[in-house]
């Protein structure tokens, strides 16, 4: 059964091993501001614990403007993304795709796998498999694939400067879909919440550095409370986490972990963030 190769590759025996902690976390969004919108509160907590944070976006948001050309908005949004990452002390990388043109094809898989090998993160966070638009969903699939492919030595990324295979399949987490619902309007419950009450203001300040996105949402989506809407989403998650835990916490972010065959199944975030991680019970 070919799919066993990943564990065999790591352990030589096929047994499940705990990945060694190299202190590297990678968060990938389809567009600039996605990471800030969904998981930056947790990233701040991990940084406080000494983790090295890397952020990448597939595109530079070239279709997200009604007033600038694609080239102009790319330049603007790259600067905004870099400024946001500075606040977190994270590296930033643009992965060379364009808005509405992210596909699950051979070259895209090789490109994302090459990038993943370069970082070789312990943890990857990205969009959930089902979300409101294709760019998010395909980004999710490409990085799910990259996590699996990166340790396989015979998978050739066709890069000019080949990078060694990754040390292991990373822990893979999906953040919540936009508005916490699927395309049929059904609530998608996270598996657990992270209490980000301590980092909410830093998270919102980071989001606020994406000024052009605020303008775009106002003209295209009719939404003028870019940062406050993000605060409300975190407050809603915090209320839900309070209800299921019996504790009182102000703000939270929700996650699901990829638990398919060969991916590490231990909840790494629960191990390092301890009581800041609150399991969803889905019964109340
Ligand atoms: Zn997006």
Descriptive account of the structure:
- The protein has 284 residues and is of the alpha/beta class.
- It is built from 10 helices and 8 strands.
- It has helices at residues 5-11, 34-38, 40-48, 70-88, 106-119, 134-149, 200-208, 211-221, 226-245, 268-273; strands spanning 24-29, 52-57, 91-94, 123-126, 171-175, 192-195, 252-257, 277-279.
- Bound molecules: zinc ion (ZN).
- Zinc ion binds at residues 30-31, 34, 136.
List key phrases describing it.
single chain; 284 residues; alpha/beta; Rossmann fold; globular; disordered N terminus; binds zinc ion
List the helices and strands and how they pair.
Layout: H1 5-11, E1 24-29, H2 34-38, H3 40-48, E2 52-57, H4 70-88, E3 91-94, H5 106-119, E4 123-126, H6 134-149, E5 171-175, E6 192-195, H7 200-208, H8 211-221, H9 226-245, E7 252-257, H10 268-273, E8 277-279
Parallel strand pairs: 1-2, 1-4, 2-3, 4-5
Antiparallel strand pairs: 5-7, 6-7, 6-8
Helix pairs in contact: 4-7, 5-6, 7-9
The structure holds zinc ion.
Residues 30-31, 34, 136 line the site of zinc ion.
Question: Care to give the gist of this entry?
Answer:
With 284 residues, the chain is of the alpha/beta class. It has helices spanning 5-11, 34-38, 40-48, 70-88, 106-119, 134-149, 200-208, 211-221, 226-245, 268-273, and strands at residues 24-29, 52-57, 91-94, 123-126, 171-175, 192-195, 252-257, 277-279. It has a single domain (2-12, 23-268), classed as 3-Layer(aba) Sandwich (Rossmann fold).
Termini gap: 41 Å
Count of individual domains: 1
**Count of DSSP E strands?**
8
What overall geometry do the principal axes of the alpha carbons give? globular
Order of strands across the biggest sheet?
3-2-1-4-5-7-6-8
Number of distinct helices: 10
**How do the SSEs run, as a string of H and E?**
HEHHEHEHEHEEHHHEHE
CATH topology descriptor? Rossmann fold
> In what range is the share of β-strand residues?
5-15%
CATH H-level superfamily: LmbE-like
Which second-level CATH architecture applies? 3-Layer(aba) Sandwich
Helix/strand-derived category reads alpha/beta
Query: How would you classify the quaternary structure?
Result: single chain
The low-confidence parts are 1-16
Biggest sheet descriptor: 8 strands, mixed
**CATH class call:** Alpha Beta
Bound molecules: zinc ion
Overall mean pLDDT: 92
Helix content: 40-55%
- Rounded radius of gyration (Å): 18 Å
């Amino acid at each position: 059964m070919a799919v066993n190769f990943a564990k065999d590759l790591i352990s030589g025996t096929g047994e499940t091993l705990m990945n060694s902690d190299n202190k590297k976390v990678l968060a990938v969004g389809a567009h600039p501001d996605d990471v800030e919108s969904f998981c930056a509160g947790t990233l701040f907590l991990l940084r406080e614990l000494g983790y090295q944070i890397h952020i990448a976006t597939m595109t530079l948001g070239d279709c997200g403007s009604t007033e600038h050309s694609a080239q102009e908005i790319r330049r603007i949004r790259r600067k905004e993304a870099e400024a946001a990452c500075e606040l977190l002390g994270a590296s930033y990388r643009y992965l060379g795709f364009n808005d509405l043109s992210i596909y699950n094809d051979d070259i895209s898989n090789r490109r994302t796998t090459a990038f993943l090998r370069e970082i070789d993160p312990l943890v990857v966070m990205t969009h959930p498999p089902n979300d409101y638009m294709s760019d998010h969903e395909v980004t999710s699939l490409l990085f799910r694939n990259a996590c699996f492919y990166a340790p396989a030595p015979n998978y050739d990324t066709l890069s000019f400067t080949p990078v060694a295979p990754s040390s292991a399949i990373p822990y893979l987490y999906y953040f919540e879909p936009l508005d916490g619902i699927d395309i049929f309007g059904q609530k998608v419950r996270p598996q657990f919440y992270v209490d980000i009450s301590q980092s909410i203001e830093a998270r919102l300040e980071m989001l606020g550095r994406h000024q052009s996105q605020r303008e775009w949402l106002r003209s295209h989506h009719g939404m003028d409370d870019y940062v406050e809407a993000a605060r409300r989403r975190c407050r809603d998650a915090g209320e839900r986490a309070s209800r299921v835990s019996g504790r009182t916490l102000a703000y939270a972010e929700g996650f699901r972990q990829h638990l398919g065959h060969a991916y590490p199944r231990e909840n790494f975030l629960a191990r390092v963030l301890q009581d800041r991680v609150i399991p969803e019970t889905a019964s109340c």
